[in-house]
Write a structure and sequence with these properties.
Blueprint (H helix, E strand, L loop, with lengths): L1 H19 L1 E13 L2 E2 L4 E6 L8 E7 L5 E10 L5 E7 L8 E7 L6 E2 L7 E7 L8 E3 L7
Parallel strand pairs: 1-9
Antiparallel strand pairs: 1-2, 1-5, 1-8, 3-4, 3-6, 6-7, 7-10
InterPro entries: Transthyretin-like, Transthyretin-like_sf
Keywords: Secreted, Signal
Family: Belongs to the nematode transthyretin-like family.
């Protein structure tokens, strides 16, 4: 009986990883501009991009500062290597309802095992006034934090 309990306790970490995956993290920074001016107060969210019926996992969110700078980092538990991406929600050069949404995928070499990212992906300076392939509209994030 005691041997079974000890065996179970030894295998518990392995079983936990099998049930919920392992912790992985990613980090990103960048600067957003609108017509050569800092895009301030623009919402940016860091997700683990999941396919299928599983919803994307929100890892972090924030807004650009007065100079258009943003920096996000977060972690999530997954079975396979995470697919981090950022979504940018903005109204640059846009007068239609809802917001323009741009997604940028972060290369897998910027994924770290554990809760703290070892490397930060620099998305660079992004001019939001342009049109982006795969751009969509989002009406929900206008009201969300």
């Amino acid at each position: 009986q005691m041997h079974r309990l000890l065996l179970f306790l030894c295998l518990l970490p392995t079983l936990t990883v099998a049930l919920i995956g392992f912790t992985q993290s990613s980090a990103v920074k960048g600067v957003l501009m609108c017509n050569d001016k800092p895009a301030k107060n623009v919402k940016v969210k860091l997700y683990d991009d999941d396919t299928g019926p599983d919803l994307d996992d929100l890892m972090d969110s924030g807004k650009t500062d007065s100079d258009g700078h943003f920096s996000l980092s977060g972690h999530v538990d997954e079975f396979t290597t995470i697919d981090p991406k950022i979504n940018i929600y903005h109204d640059c050069d846009d007068w239609l309802p809802c917001q323009r949404r741009i997604s940028i995928h972060i290369p897998s070499k910027y994924v770290t095992k554990g809760k703290t990212a070892d490397k930060i992906y620099d998305a660079g300076t992004i001019q939001l006034a342009g049109k982006f392939s795969g751009e969509t509209r989002d009406c929900l994030n206008v009201f969300a934090v």
